[in-house]
């Protein structure tokens, strides 16, 4: 039982995952509304039963969210309040503070440019994070972390992470990719748009071409995207590019709803 884990003084990474999935009833990657209500209630009960006080972090969390009906918390918020044995998920947060940093990391670790972070690439990512944080680890731990991280973020269960899945590592206010999820296009339409805005027809977007595209896109989707954030969007998306050359497959990660597996140079 996931709520029995809440009594624990320390929770393992996989127990933590069970807890998250247990309370995220609808599986949308967030604990919100009724889910959050029952999480808070059961957290308080479990601590009481175990003869433990709420920790300061838990108390602050309860105070902040108990009365906030619109609140939704992601996995990183949860990992920060539960006494998890290894808070390895927090290493991501420490390294990826902005959407631009996130996109740069994506570009680096999607080594085969498949448009996905597969398990072996995720493992390299985690290895670097652990080394940067000067955390001791062995091969077994690394495999466990990789497995857990994959399970946490792989919402569609295809065994690899797409950009939108991985972007849940970002704080919400930095995660404009969530918004772009709502303006993604079918492959055919995306290709048309790409050709239209690649004005010099050299097969990639430069910063000015992307700027023109984003302006029109924001104008057309004012309810979702923010015109005032165009330069933020642009900087982050350009971080996916190959030294300022944004090819079709890279832009497709953000704007195309379908899997576009054509070679980057087409
Ligand atoms: Ca949910
Ligand atoms: Ca890959
Ligand atoms: Ca996936
Ligand atoms: Ca161009």
TrEMBL record:
Q: Which GO terms describe its molecular function?
A: calcium ion binding; vitamin D binding
UniProt lists the family membership as follows: Belongs to the calbindin family.
Family matches, as InterPro entries: Calbindin_Ca-bind, EF-hand-dom_pair, EF_Hand_1_Ca_BS, EF_hand_dom
Keywords (alphabetical) are: Acetylation, Calcium, Metal-binding, Repeat, Vitamin D
One GO cellular component, as annotated: dendritic spine
Q: Where is the EF-hand domain?
A: 11-46, 97-132, 185-220
Q: Which gene encodes it?
A: CALB1
Pfam families in the cross-refs: EF-hand_6, EF-hand_7
Q: Which GO terms describe its biological process?
A: regulation of long-term synaptic potentiation; regulation of presynaptic cytosolic calcium ion concentration
Q: What does this protein do?
A: Buffers cytosolic calcium. May stimulate a membrane Ca(2+)-ATPase and a 3',5'-cyclic nucleotide phosphodiesterase.
Region forming the signal peptide:
none
Q: What is the lineage of its organism?
A: Eukaryota, Metazoa, Chordata, Craniata, Vertebrata
Q: What is this protein called?
A: Calbindin
